[in-house]
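User: Hello! I'm new to structural biology and keep hearing that structure can be predicted from sequence alone. Could you demonstrate with ABC transporter permease subunit? Please show me the input and the output so I can see what each looks like.

Assistant: Of course. The first part below is the input, the amino acid sequence of ABC transporter permease subunit. The second part is the output, the predicted structure written as tokens.
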Amino acid sequence: MIKRYGSLYVMIIPVLAYFILFTFYPLVRGLIISMQEFRVIGDRPFVGFSNYAIVLQDPVFWQTMVNTVLIGGGTLIIGFIAPIIVALSLNEVIRAGFKKFTQMVIYFPHLFSWVVVGGIWIYMLSPDNGLVNGLLKLLGMDQPIHFMAEKEYARWIMIFSNVWKEMGYNCILYLAAMVSINPSLYEAADMDGAGRWQKIRYVTIPQLKSTMKVVFLINLLGVFKIFDQIVVMSNGVIARQVDVVMGYTYQKTFIDFKMGVATAAAYLVIILTLVLAYVIRKAIRYDDLD
């Protein structure tokens, strides 16, 4: 057997080496560090689950967890529904030129880093010459709103700016799936006298079910990875409302130099993400890609 498939085994060695070196080893090393009083220089005594206990008893960790769930959950739900609506609307556009131009415009933000996107939104929400306050002024509002300094707006701004950035990417996935829908289904719907809305409801949306599952699961895995957006758009006034778990691990690692505690927090996030993904995968029957 080895002699017959030897060349295939040799070809798979680089792939295995890559995953062992860059995936499995860091995971195992991180697990060890999470159970140590880690120091860059000197001994690193084993402390068992003490770092996990420190994290779980830290009110700052739970505050960041609440912020992560609210911002990430809001982004997940709105970011799942909005691209479907936009994709369905674009699919109904007859003029191909306008359709392609709109796709290009809404896809652009996905290509920008959060430094650019955050700067755009901070400027648009500025009380001085910001586009949003300018529109509100035209509608009759006397005083400008300091959006980036109002705690009640902070989480919503993070949610909608994230949805705005990723809207085009998810929208293109749905449009690509719509192209692959068998035209005979629409012809059969026409023969049955179905209107435009009925074709969307009974043909298009059911045919997008597999793509919806993939998009939802991918976005779900990103709920606890929010970090760079917060670093760019947060400030001292709204920090308590928008600081997230990844920011907590960054604080513990590079500012407090408590790497054992930071790694324990990171491992709690990994475990929570895996459990959540497993539950959602079972709930939406991800494997039934019909």
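User: So the tokens describe the shape?

Assistant: Right, they're a compact way of writing down the 3D structure. Reading them back into a model, for example: Residues 219 and 246 are 17 Å apart (CA to CA).
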